[in-house]
Amino acid sequence: MTKSYQIQIGEKILTVVVSDEREALLVAQAAGRAVLGVGKSCEGLEIPAVAQDWSCVSRRMAEQTARRKERLPWIICTGERVTVREASQEDWRALQCWGPFREWPDQEAFQAYIDGQYSFYEYGLWLIEEKNTGLLLGRAGVWNPDEETCRRLEEAGEQSETYLELGYEVFPPYQGQGFAAEACRAVMAYADWELECRLCARIRPDNLPSLKLAERLGFKRLREPNETNFSLIPSHRDSEEIQWPSLYVWSC
After folding, report:
1. SS3 string of the chain?
2. What span, in angstroms and rounded, lies between the C-alpha atoms of 69 and 67?
3. Structure confidence at residue 224 (pLDDT)
4. What percent of the chain is predicted at pLDDT more than 70?
5. CB 82 within 8 A of CB 171
């Protein structure tokens, strides 16, 4: 079966061809159209995305496919004042005011992250912008917990494969205005209904604003065996003292 969606993005109308027929997808792709495969018959094709079956296909997914082809950022979620969206190459210059960033050390790595992380995982580190002005406020997102965090979750009796890690950063001029809380609530709702996962967050004991925010958001500190003997790599050093991040968890 083959069907098409007409997706309007700005002033452009794009055709997205959705099919479980390999030949139809290849012909559409060769004609320059955005394509979305459906089902196992499409596995192995060099196309951007394949839905598990037709029940997963929606207009929203078709729009996402069109945006991927045009390299336009996907809007993940919104709050009253903020929009959380994917990063795009056009954001690189504005981000230089606030970097450097460990995840995006240079422009090449930034583009590789956009092309790989978002399209493969459908989640990652996103940007927070003010809804009315488009002003870049910070970053927030979810990602796979590292091996050490998974170990800590398992030792505390949690199933680590059901978790993603939540993180956020609001740039200094915009801190203390509630943007972090609003963005995190929107991301948490998205993680619940779209990604269907639980969330964990690592927070340094001396980071009081983030500790208070986590509690307001409903996170609970995970009680771990041997809490005074963490083997997690320290996030920073103050003189000779290591500040070990505490682990907080949340589920709807």
Report:
1. CEEEEEEEECCEEEEEEEECCHHHHHHHHHCCCEEEEECHHHCCCCCCCEECCHHHCCHHHHHHHHHHHHCCCCEEEECCCEEEECCCHHHHHHHCCCCCCCCCCCHHHHHHHHHHHHHHHCCCEEEEEECCCCCEEEEEEEECCCHHHHHHHHHCCCCHHHEEEEEEEECHHHCCCCHHHHHHHHHHHHHHHHHCCEEEEEECCCCHHHHHHHHHCCCEECCCCCCCCCCCCCCCEECCEECCCEEEEECC
2. 5
3. 65
4. 90
5. no
Please report, as a single letter, which amino acid is at residue 40: K
Per residue in 129-159, pLDDT (tens digit) is: 999 999 999 999 999 999 999 998 998 888 9
Q: Name the token pair of 135.
A: 């002003």
Measured at the CA of 74, the angle between CA 98 and CA 150, to 5 degrees, comes to 70
Spell out the domain ranges in the chain. Answer: 1-72, 73-250
Who contacts 72 (Cβ-Cβ below 8 Å, separation ≥6)? 9, 88
Whole-prediction pTM:
0.77
CA–CA gap between residue 83 and residue 193 (Å, rounded): 17
Q: What is the pLDDT of residue 118?
A: 85
Nearest to 74 by CA among 137, 121, 18, 20: 121
Q: Residues 191, 144: contact at Cβ < 8 Å? A: no
What is 73-250's CATH number? 3.40.630.30
**Cβ-based neighbours of 71, under 8 Å, separated by 6 or more:** 88, 89, 114
Q: Please tell me the distance from the alpha carbon of residue 222 to that of residue 248, in angstroms, as a whole number.
A: 5
Residue 109 CB coordination number (10 Å): 12
